[in-house]
Amino acid sequence: MNTEELLRILACPRCLGTLRALAEGGGLAGLACPACKVLYPVRNDIPILLVEEALDLDQWLGEHPNAKEDA
Ligand SMILES: [Zn+2]
Question: How much is the pTM?
Answer without folding.
Answer: 0.87
